[in-house]
Amino acid sequence: MFRIIRIKKLPVFAAVTSLIIAAAAFAGSSRAEESSVGTRVPIIMYHSISRDESRSGEYVVTPQVFEEDILYLKNNGYEPITVNELILSRRCGTQLPKKPVIITLDDGHLNALTQALPIIRRHGFKMTVSVVGSFAEAAGEQAEPDENTDYCDYKDIAALRKSGICEIACHSYDMHSLDERKGVLRLDSESFESYREVFLRDILKAQKGLESSCDFKANIFCYPYGFYDSASEKVIKSAGFEAALTCEERVNIIDDDTDLYRLGRFNRPCGESSEEFFERVLD
């Protein structure tokens, strides 16, 4: 049984898209160089993009830091892709850019819409936002949501997706927890069938929320806190997901044999300049 080495810690304040992607989206861009070792695809993991600098920490950066990161990548020749474009490349043989990068935001914080999206749009980038169904439902009951502490409700998630530059991933309905189960992991006392039933029930509830409120089902899964094993991977495959995001810190080498259900990502904390962070994780 395989489990990841590094997982996310609990943040102090808690915590598919359509595959019709025209090949023309790649026209005119530089193409991935053919290599026996595949194409390097780094994925950068953010959480909250908060204007409240007192919240900055391992899982919170300011909009200024986020924008400086995007500019660093842009100025150094990186071209944004989505996870679905990675899936499409595998399925149809569509070429990736020479220096692709994927930007992800976990947990579905409201500031993904209010802060991250305008920056992404301004610089011609794309992003993947992983949402938790129970967080979205609770957010819908907030009379005056605070972008620094609250989450996107379903209309916010729909707005992100309709922007055309944001895909949505499933981060579970209500398994984003560090209780006995540790995210979506199977309990030692559970049979696989019992575990599968529990996990699929959660996935179904998450997908029903997205389908009824946002008119789509996610085809990307994001493991809560990065916990996963062979059992959880088997369940998400059976549920129809085509890729999954982990928290293993490594650059993905994409070739015909790459497991898209174990995509690694680098968490972006505060306290480092863009140059320091990217030189550390990309080199």
Structural summary, described in words:
This protein has helices spanning 63-75, 83-92, 111-122, 133-139, 154-162, 192-214, 230-238, 274-282; strands spanning 39-41, 43-46, 48-49, 60-61, 79-80, 100-107, 127-131, 166-170, 220-222, 243-245, 252-254, 266-267. It is α/β, with parallel strands linked by helices. It has one domain (37-282): Glycoside hydrolase/deacetylase (TIM Barrel, Alpha-Beta Barrel), CATH 3.20.20.370. Strands 2, 5, 6, 7, 8 and 12 form a 6-stranded parallel β-sheet that branches. Strand 6, helix 3 and strand 7 form a beta-alpha-beta unit. The two termini are 30 Å apart. Mean pLDDT is 89; it is low at 1-35.
Provide a concise account of the structure shown.
With 283 residues, this protein is α/β, with parallel strands linked by helices. It has helices at residues 63-75, 83-92, 111-122, 133-139, 154-162, 192-214, 230-238, 274-282; strands at 39-41, 43-46, 48-49, 60-61, 79-80, 100-107, 127-131, 166-170, 220-222, 243-245, 252-254, 266-267.
Tags for this model:
283 residues, alpha/beta, 6-stranded parallel β-sheet, globular, disordered N terminus
Low-pLDDT sequence parts:
1-35
Order of helices and strands: EEEEHEHEHEHHEHEHEEEH
User: How many strands appear in the DSSP assignment?
Assistant: 12
The number of helical elements comes to: 8
Mean pLDDT: 89
Helix content estimate:
25-40%
CATH superfamily: Glycoside hydrolase/deacetylase
- Give the termini separation: 30 Å
| CATH top-level class | Alpha Beta
Kindly provide the radius of gyration, computed on alpha-carbon positions and rounded to a whole number of angstroms: 18 Å
For the biggest sheet, the summary is: 6 strands, parallel
Which fold does the CATH topology refer to?
Answer: TIM Barrel
Total separate domains: 1
